[in-house]
Amino acid sequence: MRFGSIILIVALCSFTAYYIYEPIPEEIEERWKLMLTNSFFRSLSHLADLSELLGLKDYMGVMYFITLAEKVVPVSDEHVKVKEETFDGVEVVLYQPKQRGGDAELRRAVIYLHGGGWCLGSSRMSPYDLLARKLVTELDAVVLSVEYRLAPAHHFPVPYEDVYRVVKHFLQKGVLAKYSVDPGRIAVSGDSAGGNLAAAVSQQLQKEPGQQVQLKAQALIYPVLQALDLNTPSYQQNQDMPILPRTLMVRFWSEYFTSDKALFRAMMANTHNNPESSSLLKFVNWSAFLPETYHRKYNYSAPAVVQGAGGDGVGMDGPSQSLADPRASPLLVPDSALRSLPKAYILTCEYDVLRDDGIMYVTRLRSAGVEVTHQHYDTGFHGGLMFTVWPTDFLIARRMTDNYIKWLEENL
Question: Does residue 192 carry a catalytic annotation?
Answer without folding.
Answer: yes
